[in-house]
Amino acid sequence: MAKLVILGTASFIPDETHDNAHMAVYGPSGSVLIDSGINPLVSLKRAKVPFESLLAIIVTHFHPDHVSGLPNFLMGLWLMGRKTNLNIYGFRVTLDKVQALMSLFEWKDWPGFYPVAFEPVRPAENALIIETPDFRIHSSPTHHLVPSLALKFTSQANGHSIVYSSDTSPCDALAHLAQEADVLVHEVAGAASGHSSPAMAGSIARQAGVGHLVLIHYHTKDNPDDLIAEAQSTFSGKISLAHDQDVFEF
Ligand SMILES: [Zn+2]
Ligand SMILES: [Zn+2]
Question: How far is the CA of 230 from the centre of ligand 1 (A)?
Fold first, then answer.
């Protein structure tokens, strides 16, 4: 059985109960972290996802609310004694910036650091990134202020799938990736360039024919009822607001 745990739900500004949007997908054979909140050492521990199970990190795009916790997290894994390889996936331009960020900390000089492999993701629709005995992860490029990717998690056991938009304005590539998905976890930071409003998220959910729309990457001061009501104006299926530590089995 594969599970997705929502580790953070806030857009740019986190608060006491909403970390920046990030999540993990996991099963008995290992886990994959998607982006980074304030520090995933805390959010993963709260979710009881063991650090030893971490196979890879996928970085959807290089914006502070998605990557700034990474240096602390990578350092923490090292100080806790990690020895096993860790793969980091993202578009090449994203990985170049992550490496530049880490080089400011001179991490190559940290003794006994575990091996890290940077694996560029093809900027193509439905590109396979990772396959484990529990799930497959595919990605498609989306429309954001910097190159960004959406992700599809598919259960190996039953074919059920969850799609995560990451940051994007409405685009066909996302609607294609989310086609017939059981759950679409979609950002609702607003209608500003490179982002989506709840009504826009609802339109993508309707276009893709998903079963359940979950709103994430919202402003914590927004009224949840207003967000859901706006999404209901364009999507008649099940809609809910993501909360930190929500778990979806698929
Ligand atoms: Zn962004
Ligand atoms: Zn963001």
Answer: 22
For residue 150, which of 201, 221, 85 has the smallest C-alpha distance? 201
**How far apart are the CA of 40 and the centre of ligand 1, in A?**
18
Q: Which ligand is the nearest neighbour of the Cα of 66?
A: 2
* Cα of 164 from ligand 2 centre, angstroms: 12
Please state, in angstroms and rounded to a whole number, the distance separating the CA atoms of residues 201 and 170: 7
Ligand 1: distance of its center to the CA of 145 in Å?
7
Contact 186, 227 (CB under 8 A): no
How far is ligand 2, taken at its centre, from the CA of residue 199, in Å?
A: 18
Would you give the distance in Å from CA 250 to the centre of its chain? 16
Which ligand is nearest to the Cα of residue 61, counting in written order? Answer: 1
pLDDT in tens, 134-181: 999 999 999 999 999 999 999 999 999 999 999 999 999 999 999 999
DSSP per-residue codes, 163-183: EE--S-B--HHHHHHTTT-SE
Residue 2 CA to ligand 1 centre (angstroms): 27
Distance 66 CA to ligand 1 centre (A): 7
Exposure string for 48-83, b = 16+ CB within 10 A, e = fewer: ebebeebbbbbbbbbbebbbebbbbbbbbbbeeebe
Binning pLDDT at 50, 70 and 90, where does residue 1 land?
confident
Q: Residue 156: name the closest of 140, 141, 177, 138 by CA.
A: 138
Give every strand in the sheet of 183-187, ordered side by side. 127-131, 135-142, 148-155, 161-164, 183-187, 212-216, 238-241
Q: For 124-208, where are the alpha helices, taking DSSP H only?
A: 172-177, 198-208
CA–CA dist 215, 223 (Å, integer): 12
